[in-house]
């Protein structure tokens, strides 16, 4: 068969087919898509099977499974973006695979190989292609889960494991301004605990303070370190950066802070100092912003600590806005990807 010149191939590219979704109304909530990908750990071969694409739906679990009884599980979050030419890009999926591997080691679980992780993510996105929002109108959030699914009543690692990837189109994580309340009683993580990995059990323990803060009109809580209660760590689902003069700093991720993939990307786009950040530093910061896969980069409007509210610079001239534009430009294929962060998958 003869080969066509590149130009003809571009012109012949089929128009993408889209699911019937009101893309502009999307927030951060589950919209059920068509398919998910599942891999089971084979005990004899000591490895995960090849991923199988099945219809998205409920899964069966033994009531005594490790995930249900003892929370032996991890999750990841990454996004697929639609380019202007309707191609699809993943943003740094290898970083998620690596983070899951480190987490699996901490949680005494086997992890899929890098190749298996990437294959399952790609298969899930391609099977749900029509749910990847049009360019500039959201993204497909991909949620890999690794869990102990074998029965175990005794307190010990599960006998079987499942790796599952599902996806949902999403819009903005937070609508409106980000007003943080410093939580000085409940801690998200303790030294030696699991705060530095994406354990499923890291989240529901802070629902109580988060719900209370939201009832008072705040959008999120900002956690302090458990040892001294004097240094800022992170929000419920995001890393934090503060800007003073020309210096941007972020708390050192040394086991009690989740090493963020968007956070790391931000360091590459702007020089950042990673150090301990005492709570007092937020009182005279000029700008504060949060990063996360779900949140991307978002300016913080205010931080309230023990009744004292500090407000920060917002708007088009902020470093946060510039970082947001640079990052989303790369993620959606608008800006040149000089660092090789994106992976085309169609
Ligand atoms: C992400 O940004 O992917 C997160 O993990 C936040 C999530 C808890 C919504």
TrEMBL record:
Tell me the Gene Ontology biological-process terms attached to this UniProt entry.
branched-chain amino acid metabolic process
Q: Which UniProt keywords apply?
A: Aminotransferase, Pyridoxal phosphate, Transferase
What GO molecular-function term can you cite, just one?
A: branched-chain-amino-acid transaminase activity
Needs which cofactor?
pyridoxal 5'-phosphate
Known Gene3D superfamilies for this protein? 3.30.470.10, D-amino Acid Aminotransferase, subunit A, domain 2 (3.20.10.10)
The N6-(pyridoxal phosphate)lysine modification is found at 198
Q: Which family does it belong to?
A: Belongs to the class-IV pyridoxal-phosphate-dependent aminotransferase family.
What name does this protein carry?
A: Branched-chain-amino-acid aminotransferase 6
Report the source organism. Answer: Hibiscus syriacus (Rose of Sharon)
């Amino acid at each position: 068969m003869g080969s066509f010149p590149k130009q003809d191939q571009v012109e012949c590219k089929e128009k993408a087919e889209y699911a019937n979704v009101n893309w502009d109304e999307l927030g951060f909530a589950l919209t059920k898509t068509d398919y998910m990908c599942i891999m089971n750990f084979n005990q004899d071969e000591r490895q995960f099977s090849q991923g199988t694409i099945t219809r998205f739906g409920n899964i069966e679990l033994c009531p005594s499974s490790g995930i249900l009884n003892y929370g032996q599980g991890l999750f990841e979050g990454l996004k697929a973006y639609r380019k202007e030419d309707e191609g699809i890009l993943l943003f740094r999926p290898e970083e998620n695979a690596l983070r899951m591997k480190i987490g699996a080691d901490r949680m005494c679980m086997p992890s899929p190989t890098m190749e298996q992780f990437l294959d399952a993510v790609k298969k899930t996105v391609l099977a749900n292609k029509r749910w990847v929002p049009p360019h500039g109108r959201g993204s497909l959030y991909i949620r890999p889960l690794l869990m102990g699914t074998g029965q175990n009543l005794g307190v010990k690692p599960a006998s079987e494991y499942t790796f599952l990837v599902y996806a949902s189109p999403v819009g903005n994580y937070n609508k409106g301004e980000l007003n943080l309340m410093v939580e000085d009683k409940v801690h998200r993580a303790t030294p030696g605990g699991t705060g530095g990995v994406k354990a499923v059990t890291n989240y529901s323990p802070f629902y109580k303070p988060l719900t209370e803060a939201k009832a008072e009109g705040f959008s999120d809580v900002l956690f302090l370190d458990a040892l001294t209660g004097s240094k800022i760590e992170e929000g419920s689902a995001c890393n934090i950066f503060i800007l003073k003069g020309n210096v941007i700093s972020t708390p050192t991720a040394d086991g009690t802070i989740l090493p963020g993939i968007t956070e790391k990307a931000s360091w590459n786009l702007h020089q950042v100092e990673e150090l301990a950040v005492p709570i007092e530093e937020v009182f005279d910061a000029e700008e504060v912003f949060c990063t996360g896969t779900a949140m991307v980069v978002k300016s913080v409007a205010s931080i309230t600590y023990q009744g004292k509210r500090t407000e920060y610079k917002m708007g088009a001239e902020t470093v946060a806005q510039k970082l947001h534009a640079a990052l989303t430009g790369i993620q959606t294929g608008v800006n040149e990807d000089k660092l090789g962060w994106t992976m085309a998958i169609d």
